[in-house]
């Protein structure tokens, strides 16, 4: 009997055909004793990082207030409405709550996941968030730390890879779909607000292309590398290379199919992704309301997501890229320059800097949790031999 036949009918995570890629085995099967990913700090890295942060801070606090028209608005940052600032803090907590729920539903499956509860999921997600803040290029550090923790929990490498792709697909499908809906809605006059071509049509086309690529990736057979085994045996070294390379499209296909299964069943994983982005945008909305008026909803969504493209720049945590991208996008939509600067910087303070402290604490908590898993795993391995 296959795992699909054994799965309860109300659990799309195990009901989906891709779940059969999860190989059976003991809790710590397919496990390697790799070390926890650490941020390698050299003298050169510290000097460059310090110079970068000093330059950004100096620009924000000494140069920006001198720009014509921004001085008066900049002074308002000390007089924001406390009620809206408290609301921004609450929205920040709810956003990361949705992120933890999404992680729990996507990754925690099967018997191997009994030891990964909500507390462990919180530690992994928040520690990954802290790593994302310290590494550049769109959160590669967070992905590496998450994969390491799940491997230490006993999940096979293939399962971690499939689930990681599914997690990314769920996360960024919301991102891209929101840009398509808001961009086309503004361009066609369905939503209130200006519709500059460069800030609506261009991002929308970009999002549609990426969504199309993702859906096409889901058409690849999930066992493509197995199907090429005979070809690899007969074709020599080059054929063996292509057979191994087929693992990547197969893994992407598996992840896309798992993500689509969550969406079809309206699973908490999909709702968690919506909550993560929705409450994150609500933080920005509260930041605007704290110092003035918020732009129309579609403009707020479009400016937020266009600015988030700054995460692709190779900057620590997107510092500077995201801030500048959001401010520029809102100014392009006709938002007051001073209000855009103050609101975006306030948003970044809540959504970016504030969770870094609990994330760093969770990093050290995760190290103790993994040490406990390691001890338990060794005890389970020794028990049969002693018996």
List the topology elements.
Elements: H1 3-6, H2 12-15, H3 43-63, H4 71-75, H5 82-107, H6 118-134, H7 140-152, H8 157-187, H9 197-217, H10 224-227, H11 229-245, H12 247-264, H13 268-291, H14 297-308, H15 321-332, H16 337-353, H17 356-386
Can you characterise this structure?
The chain is mostly helical. The protein has one domain. 72% of the residues lie in helices and 0% in strands. The protein has 17 helices and no strands. The chain has helices at residues 3-6, 12-15, 43-63, 71-75, 82-107, 118-134, 140-152, 157-187, 197-217, 224-227, 229-245, 247-264, 268-291, 297-308, 321-332, 337-353, 356-386. It is globular and about 70 Å long. The two termini are 31 Å apart. Residues 1-33 have low confidence and may be disordered.
Observed structural traits:
single chain, 387 residues, mainly alpha, 17 helices, 0% strand, globular, disordered N terminus
Query: How large is the radius of gyration?
Result: 23 Å
For the residues shown, what is the average pLDDT? 76
Instruction: Summarize the helix and strand pattern as letters.
Output: HHHHHHHHHHHHHHHHH
Count of helix runs = 17
How big a fraction of the residues is strand? under 5%
Shape: globular
Q: Into how many domains do the coordinates divide?
A: 1
Structural class of the helix and strand makeup? mainly alpha
How many beta-strand segments?
0
What is the end-to-end distance? 31 Å
- Poorly predicted runs are 1-33
Name the helicity range.
Answer: over 70%
Report the major sheet.
Answer: none
